[in-house]
Every structure is written in structure tokens, then in C-alpha cells.
């Protein structure tokens, strides 16, 4: 397992970062390397973002950075497969996941293994993990069972469906929330008009971006925004004080993972467009 550690950012310092600093501190790349599990540990609410691309069965180990006997001893995890079919094995229980299937795993699981069903066509298991004070039941969620919220207007190029996988109305968790947003053809904007929610931080993982396309992730204080150019299967760590929005060269999909003080999805501080700079 390859683990990268990232630290938090003060908004007053953030405004002075150049492109390289923004990318080094907030962008997560190369999540799916064949035969590897790659993990990024952020000190912002101690969220862990990872990707597993098994060519052979891969076991998730626990590094010193986590400080526990096993990875999920004091953590919960959400997993969404964005690749070919595969299987997650949690303490011997097998969970087959086709593309866009999701899985919630509660704290206390000792042995976690990722497998691809076909070693020539690999699963891409994207996962998020947060500290957990108690254990909740494991829960398999395919995209059809996710809570669906349709948003946007064609004339504003932001028509999208929010699929809420790990959400209080779908399954119980300690603090982790996770879902998948799909933009329709002809729509390129998400979360604009934008908002912040100081009670929760968020990680955005972008996929379904064409090889010759990019997405511009917009973040920072509303009155002084910055952007990162994101390519397919890359993620951005987003502090709670920051907006989180994006526009692409075409439609795309993204997985959002949130941890923090509450699980109220609608707890947002909306930003008037007149404030944006």
C-alpha cells in the first residue's frame, strides 16, 4: 500500500498559493495503478481517500500513520466501483460490485481484500474512510437503490442527478456521507450557484472525463476563488471553508465524500453570485 499524507490549509495562506502548491496540497492523482492500493491521508478531518486496482487479490494494510492495529479498527469506509466488476471481501463476507455499485463497511472489520473478477479487465475501487466512534452494519448499495435527487436547468448547463449512496435515508453511519453525481449531455456545471458548509469538508473524485477533456475544479473563498485542472479519475481535497464547484469541457461524473459535524445534506451556506470573484 502506498500512502501519501496531506495537511490542512488556512484560508489566509491559501490565497497566496501558486498552481504547483495547489496541486501538490489538494490534487490526488494516480489512484488506480494496476496491482496497487494507493491511499491519501488528509489531516482535514482525517479523511482517507484511496483507490484499489487489483490484478491479484489486494489486502488493505494499516500503516503507522493511522496508529491502530488494523485499518478499520476505528474507521468506517465507503466504496464505489468505477471500473470492471470486482469483489470486496470483508472478514470473509463477499460483496460483488459491478460498475457504480456501492458498499458501506462499518468499523471493526479486520481483513479487507479487493479482487477483480477478470484479471485482464480490472475493477477500480474508489474508497473514502473516516474516523468512527461505533460500528454500523455493512450495507450494499447499487445505483438503483441510491436516493436520487434531480437538479439543474438545461439553459444553465447544469442538469444532473445526485445519487445519494451513503446517506441517513439509505444506511446508518457515524459521519461519512458519500454519493455520485452524473451530469447529462450538454451540461458541464455542478454546484453553481455554489455554497460552503463549514460543518463538513468534502473530497470530489472526477471520472467519465474523455481522454482529451478536462474539468476545472473551483474552490477557495467565494470572494477570491482558485481552480485546479482535473483529469479523469483524479480527486480534489476541499476544506470546509471553501466552495466546491466545477465546469468541464463536456459532461462528466463525480463522487463526493463528506465528513464532519453533521449529516444534514441540505445544511449549506449559499453564496450569492454577486459575491463571487
Structure report:
With 277 residues, the protein is mainly beta. The protein has a single domain (2-275), classed as Sandwich (Jelly Rolls), CATH 2.60.120.10. It has two helices and 24 strands. The chain has helices at 11-14, 19-26, and strands at residues 2-6, 27-28, 36-42, 48-53, 58-59, 75-81, 86-90, 93-97, 102-105, 112-116, 125-131, 139-141, 147-151, 160-166, 177-183, 189-190, 195-196, 200-207, 215-221, 224-230, 234-238, 243-248, 253-260, 269-270. Strands 1-3-4-11-6-9-12 form a seven-stranded mixed beta sheet, with no helix packed on it. Strands 2-21-18-23-15-14-13 form a seven-stranded antiparallel beta sheet. It has a four-stranded antiparallel beta sheet with strand order 5-10-7-8, with no helix packed on it. The longest helix has 8 residues, at 19-26. The chain is globular, with a radius of gyration of 18 Å. 43% of the residues are buried.
Which consecutive residue ranges, at least 5 long each, have pLDDT under 50?
none
Shape: globular
Protein structure class: mainly beta
Task: Work out the strand percent.
Answer: 35-45%
CATH architecture: Sandwich
The CATH superfamily name is Jelly Rolls
Our measurement of the CA-to-CA distance between the termini, rounded to an integer number of angstroms, reads: 40 Å
> Might you state the CATH topology name?
Jelly Rolls
| H and E order | EHHEEEEEEEEEEEEEEEEEEEEEEE
Cα-atom radius of gyration: 18 Å
The total domain count is: 1
The largest sheet is: 7 strands, mixed
Tell me how many strands there are.
Answer: 24
Q: How many helical elements? A: 2
**Strand order across the biggest sheet?**
1-3-4-11-6-9-12
Fraction of helical residues: under 10%
- The CATH class turns out to be Mainly Beta
- pLDDT average, as an integer? 95
Amino acid at each position: 500500500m502506498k500512502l501519501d499524507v496531506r495537511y490542512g490549509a488556512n484560508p489566509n495562506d491559501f490565497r497566496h498559493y501558486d498552481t504547483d502548491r495547489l496541486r501538490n496540497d489538494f490534487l490526488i492523482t494516480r489512484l488506480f495503478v494496476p496491482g496497487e492500493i494507493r491511499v491519501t491521508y488528509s489531516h482535514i478531518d482525517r479523511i482517507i481517500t484511496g483507490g484499489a486496482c487489483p490484478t491479484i487479490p489486494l489486502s488493505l494494510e494499516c500503516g503507522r500513520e493511522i496508529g491502530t492495529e488494523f485499518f478499520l479498527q476505528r474507521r468506517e469506509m465507503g466504496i464505489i466501483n468505477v471500473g470492471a466488476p470486482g469483489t470486496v471481501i470483508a472478514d470473509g463476507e463477499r460483496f460483488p460490485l459491478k460498475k457504480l455499485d456501492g458498499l458501506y463497511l462499518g468499523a471493526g472489520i479486520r481483513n479487507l481484500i479487493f479482487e477483480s473478477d477478470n484479471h485482464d479487465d480490472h475493477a477500480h475501487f474508489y474508497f473514502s474512510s473516516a474516523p468512527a466512534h461505533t460500528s454500523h452494519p455493512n450495507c450494499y448499495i447499487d445505483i438503483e437503490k441510491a436516493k436520487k435527487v434531480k437538479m439543474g436547468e438545461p439553459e444553465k448547463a447544469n442538469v444532473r442527478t445526485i445519487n445519494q449512496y451513503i446517506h441517513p435515508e439509505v444506511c446508518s453511519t457515524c459521519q461519512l456521507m458519500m454519493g455520485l453525481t452524473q451530469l447529462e449531455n450538454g451540461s458541464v456545471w455542478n454546484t453553481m450557484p455554489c455554497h460552503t458548509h463549514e460543518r463538513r469538508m468534502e473530497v470530489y473524485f472526477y471520472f467519465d472525463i474523455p481522454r482529451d477533456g478536462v474539468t476545472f475544479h473551483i474552490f477557495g473563498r467565494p470572494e477570491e476563488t482558485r481552480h485546479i485542472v482535473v483529469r479523469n479519475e483524479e480527486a480534489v481535497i476541499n476544506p470546509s471553508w471553501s466552495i466546491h464547484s466545477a465546469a468541464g469541457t463536456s459532461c462528466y461524473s463525480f463522487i463526493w465524500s463528506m465528513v464532519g459535524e453533521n449529516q444534514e445534506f441540505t445544511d449549506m451556506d449559499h453564496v450569492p453570485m454577486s459575491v463571487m470573484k
